[in-house]
Every structure is written in structure tokens, then in C-alpha cells.
Amino acid sequence: FSERLKFKTGASETDYMVESFNNMMDSLEGSYNQQKQFVEDASHELRTPLQIIQGHLKLISRWGKNDPKVLDESLDISIDELHRINKLVEELLILTKNEEKVAESLDEVNVNREIESRVNSLKKVHPDYTFDINLDGDEIYLKTATHHFEQMLTIFLDNAVKYDQQNKYIEISTESGKDTFDIIIKDHGIGIPSEDIENVFNRFYRVDKSRSRQQGGNGLGLSIAKKLVENYNGSVWVESEKGAFTKVIVRFPRIINRMRK
Ligand code: ADP
């Protein structure tokens, strides 16, 4: 193939074309492998709850008819696992959708008000936690679909709660820069080992698989949140110290940032 091209086009042009072709094939292969990995991981995640349900249905059919305790327990566990499957499927759909880059209708979300509202609802569910809110005096607006913004905040805040069961102390702040603003969520929980930090935004990545599963996690939360943040031209990163704290920093460009009446 390259010899025929060389004949037609001359050496340097051919080399260039062959190189571009090879690069294209590499990148296609890379994306194919990523897709393959994604399907494998998703199937693996689905298999666990399905196997649990299957096991409990067998228990019910053998002993459940005569033993109400077995019946109740197995039904409860099966329903929990079904919820897990439901959540997983919904999250997989979000990840695979070729996003709503510009969502149907964008809202001007008042960032500080939205944070207050999310934190107030969390306080009701977790009265034993301290949520220390420190919001920038400026009114910050972000052009985004409100439900995307809520979803993103919920993922970070839920993680802070999930992984800070010792101190139950979560700080939430906003800071305005010249062209950007930051939303910072800091918990004082188990932290993330330094070697894992670069991977936590990867799909299905969990530092401690069994701990995460116990708490209803499937390792997709942060990858979804990152996708949502990037949809609106933001960036997100994590700073952490194992056993001390985890800080999530989300940075958006200040597209709309003005004082309102
Ligand atoms: P999960 O559903 O497992 O929480 P995520 O994608 O939200 O999945 O997070 C990926 C992994 O990153 C988690 O399993 C956990 O190990 C780690 N992680 C995320 N947030 C925190 C946090 N605030 N503190 C400590 N570890 C965290």
C-alpha cells in the first residue's frame, strides 16, 4: 500500500499520508479498546446484583414459602439489588449519551443559591453532619441546565458525606477569580491515597471496591460529574491526603457574573 502511494505521490507526501493513516488507525483502535473495556466493566457491574437476585430467588423457591423470615429477607435484598441495577443503568445511559452539549434550554443558575438549597436538603437527611458554608459575596451565575448543575453538586456532596463518616465535617465554598469562579467541597474523611488520585475520575474506578459497594457506589459518580462539568466548559480536580481530607475543586469560566437587583 505504501509503495503504491509512494509511486503516485512522491516520498515525503507518502510518508506523511502513511503516518496519518497509522495515527488514525491507532486512535480508532484506542477508542475501540476503550469501548470494549467499558462494555466489559458495565457487564461485570451488572452481573453481581443479578447473581445476588438469582441466589435469593432460589432461596425463596426452596424455603421462602414456609419460612416468612427467609421470604422477607430475600425479598428485601432482591429489591435493594434491583435498585442498584436501576441506578447503574441510568448512570450508564448518562455516560453513553452523546450529550446534550447544549441542552434544550439553558438556565442562568444562581450558583450560591443552588448550593444553599442542595446543602439544606442534605442537612435534613444528615442532621449529624456539620456543613460549613462559606460563599463568595458576589452573585455568581452559570449558564447551564439546572438539573445538570444539581446532579453534579449532588455527586460531590454525596461523596463527601459517604467518605467522611469519622469527622462528619464538610466545608463548601465559592471563590471568584478574575475570569473564573471555583466551587470547593472539602470533607475531612478517609481521603484518597496519592497513587489513586489521578484515576478517581475514570469510569468504574473505586479505591476500595467493597467499601464503595456497601455504600451503594458503583464508581461512576465522578466520571459523570466530570462529564457534566466539562459540558459547560468547566474543569474539576481533586486534592487529598489519605486519612485527612479530600477537596474537590470545580472551576467554571465566569461567563455571566453580575450583580442583580
Ligand atoms: P463511588 O460510587 O464508588 O463513590 P465515584 O466515581 O463517585 O464512585 O468515586 C470514585 C472513587 O473515588 C470512590 O470509590 C472513592 O474510592 C473515591 N472517592 C470519591 N470521592 C471521595 C471522597 N470525598 N473521599 C474519599 N474518597 C473519595
From TrEMBL:
- Location of the Histidine kinase domain: 41-256
Extract one GO molecular function annotation from the record: ATP binding
Task: Tell me the ranges covered by the HAMP domain, including all copies.
Answer: 1-33
Please give the catalytic activity noted in the UniProt record. ATP + protein L-histidine = ADP + protein N-phospho-L-histidine
**How does the UniProt record describe the way this protein sits in the membrane?**
Multi-pass membrane protein
Principal location: membrane
What are the record keywords, sorted?
Answer: ATP-binding, Cell membrane, Kinase, Membrane, Nucleotide-binding, Phosphoprotein, Transferase, Transmembrane, Transmembrane helix, Two-component regulatory system
What is the residue range of the signal peptide feature?
Answer: none
Q: What class of enzyme is it?
A: transferase
Name of the molecule in the record: Signal transduction histidine-protein kinase ArlS
Q: In which organism is this protein found?
A: Corticicoccus populi
